[in-house]
Fold this sequence. Notes:
Strand content: 5-15%
Largest sheet: 5 strands, parallel
Distance between the termini: 44 Å
Radius of gyration: 15 Å
Shape: globular
Number of strands: 5
Structural class: alpha/beta
Strand order of the largest sheet: 3-2-1-4-5
Number of helices: 6
Oligomer: single chain
Amino acid sequence: MEGNNDEIVKLAALQIMEQHQNLPRLVVFDLDYTLWPFYCECYYLDDTPYLYPEAKGIIEALKEKGIELAVASRSPTAQLAIAFLAKLEISSLFVTKEIFSSWTHKTDHFQRIQKKTGLPYTSMLFFDDEDRNIGPTSKMGVTSILVDNGVTLEALKQGLAEFSQKTGSSSND
């Protein structure tokens, strides 16, 4: 049944993307309380991780559209986070996974992502559950979206609308 929901969400996400001429070249996700509803450092390697209900369908839709994906997570348990991504069978979908403890916001993560991908910050869309990460990454030029209950179709819609507005491709010019 779960796979069916992923497919429904994926189709809805693709429809949302069709409404925008200008799509990000890279979408970056935080992990804890953004892709999954927990702090991974509170779990063990043999635990079974799970995603928010709409996360996998959104990831698959972005991938199908040819948009690159990355992870920026400030986690003290990077190995556990990487293991969970593998268990969820989504690890290979990310071009880079920047998972490390950092005293800065997410700016270190984004500098590394930018170096590895060669993409400008202005071509990136970022989802995170912590307000303190949104401001600093926005100042870098990244379209940054605060999520309440993980990545949802609503968050995707908001993110793509803000990205389109920032990159100046509105259809009402």
